[in-house]
Records
---
Amino acid sequence: MALVDFTGTDLRQANLQGSDLRGSTLNDAYLNDAKLVGADLSPLSISDRGRAIPGNAIGASFVGADLSRAKLRELNLTNADLRRADLSDADLTGAKLRSCSLDGAKLEGAILEGADLDGARGL
């Protein structure tokens, strides 16, 4: 499914576990409670930063993804690969970032209040 345009698509509660979504566009998509465990979302484009993306992205790959200003509150990103991701001004309040890789990630202005960063690398 790489390079799919999901603009405006309702993916709430979708099971995208292990999906190859490399280079896909999720502008204005609804991803609430989507299961993204092991999905490859690198590099990802999300233009509507107003949508909350809570749910489960354990082990997902967001390498080089533009998640600037994204609302990722309480998202479970345990073991996720966020190398070189742009998380500037993203809201990661209460997110689980345990053992994830943040090498080269941009975190300027990111809100990390209550985030679990235990074992996170690259900070």
---
Amino acid sequence: MTDAADQLDPPAGDRRELPAAHRLDLSGALRALRRRADLSQRELAARSGVPHGTVGSVESGASPNPRLRTVERLVAATGARLAILDIDGSEPVRLSTDDWVDEAERRYPPHLDVFPVTWRGTGPATGFGFVRNRVMRDFDRMWAADEWAGPPHPSDPAVAARRHGCAGGDPADR
């Protein structure tokens, strides 16, 4: 079973293009936003502070990789907002990680799930901890999201295949 995140993660060193379904038609989206705001390219350039030539090249596709800040300014000038969405289509929740520092005032890596640690009887949190084991971290995340349905049932064909050492299906069918 693969999910959308696995399909987007290329192997290390692989610089292939994203699949067409995941690519953004930036020029078309910007043109649509500009027309909805009833602005000419010159008006959009004046409102955003971006040169008129840049607006034209982004809209025509001649500038395939404009800077993020440029796109942000152009989108904001149309009255819209640029957003990053999760796989499920919702905006990611911003983590307040300002307090997540160790004794040397270093921040914990953002990919770790940091949690407050209290020693028995000491009251409020005295530090932070995290789980490095990726399998345990993923299990904890599933458990917290109430997505874990428990271990697979022994009658599941995949479990039976692993138990009997075959590639798939019921061992009785071999």
---
Amino acid sequence: MLVVLITLAIAIYEQWVTVPNHQTHVLIRACRDRLLVGTRETLFTHLSQQPCAGTYTLQVMADERKKRVAREALMTLRYCRVQCLRPRRLDGTDYPHSVVLYAVEAVEINPPPGQAPVHWRLLTTHRVVCLEQALQMIAWYGWRWRIEQLFATLKQSGLNLEATQLEFGAAIQRLCVLALSPAVRVLQFRTYAKTLDIA
């Protein structure tokens, strides 16, 4: 099974209806509110009115750029099945009138003073009908940050894969595979250094 993680919801409707199959699913963070079939409510309103399915804790890493402090956040979790309308920009196309998705919302309870609460709204083609499945979507989406860090490490000095002078695709692929091991080790050392508070 392949899970496609998408961080930007640009032209996402097309991907919801073309990418998924029996082996591939889409999981995105919903950045825009959407109209739903059969209701006047929008996605965000409908999702926030669902009953709390459970809670979990999330280790929030500090981020100086966002002035976010490290903490253990208590999160509430909601989920439901939704049917999103096709955007108006796609009227007159062959895309279906609507698409059935599953929505998951995680919201931090009582963030520290001066801190914005962690708030994720995810949409997926995966079936989410129980708490365990909702938590799995959260866990998979959480890996997005580590994947981004891995690719950033591959591009940094030392590895700097973007500066390669190799010309053939097969050679570049081999170089990328060779560079993955040291890039993962760099990330492991950074994570370990943060636990010792020496980074």
